[in-house]
Amino acid sequence: MKLYMHPVSMTSRPVRLFIAENDIPAEEQVVDLFTGEHYKEHFLAINPNHMVPVLEDGDFRLTESSAILKYLADKIGSPAYPKDLKQRAKVNEVMDWINVNFYRDWAYGFIYPQLFPHHKRQTDEVHAATIEWGKERAQGWLALLDQYWIGPNRQYLTGDQITIADYFGAALVTLGEVIRCDFGKYPNVQRWLNNMKKLKSWPKTNEVFYGLCDSLKQQQFNAI
Question: How would you label 82-95 residue by residue, b for 16+ Cβ within 10 Å and e otherwise?
Fold first, then answer.
């Protein structure tokens, strides 16, 4: 298998972590997002969405992080994607919630406009208003994640056993570490993230990501 990815890509990180934790043989091909390689003709032939990750398994090609995690978990028979219909449905439910609701406002409304020039709005006033609106929405989603999805009694998103939803969600939530968000107001989220960071492969697979965080330590952000 071959995984096209970038080590700081929020959607590549959960796939890389799952592969590392489960010792899945896979070649990694870095697609340099910072030089725009994902817009180059050779990569558009692989994924016209110009996004990573992309998984190739023989002549089978799959895009979208959530779909790749499900495929890999099924391929190796991992309990992280339960076979039981109702348990699997709960995993799908929270993954959809994270992707469609939480991540939209958290990343594209709040954090990415502070990090990337191509997310700059037309005027400074509109830009600042976009970030404030995204921040307000993100705080609401974090409260739901803290109190409803995790709550005080769960170790992971769907119970006391890790699932692919945790791999997926933890990578996206820790995007907030780039702008130095403080999850102290969300103790269940903090506890859950600490559980994920205990995985043996977390330090290595997130090494470049934390290098990015360190490189931005002097930059001022509007953080939670």
Answer: beeeebeebbeebb
pLDDT tens for 62-109 read 999 999 999 999 999 999 999 999 999 999 999 999 999 999 999 999
Whole-structure pTM value:
0.96
Residue 39: the pLDDT is 81
Please say if the pLDDT value at position 122 is more than 90.
no
Domain boundaries, the chain: 2-76, 85-215
- According to the CATH classification, is domain 85-215 in 1.20.1250.20? no
Short-list 192, 199, 184, CA closest to 156? 192
Separation between Cα atoms, residue 91 and residue 80, nearest integer Å: 9
Question: Per the CATH hierarchy, to which homologous superfamily does domain 2-76 belong?
Answer: Glutaredoxin (3.40.30.10)
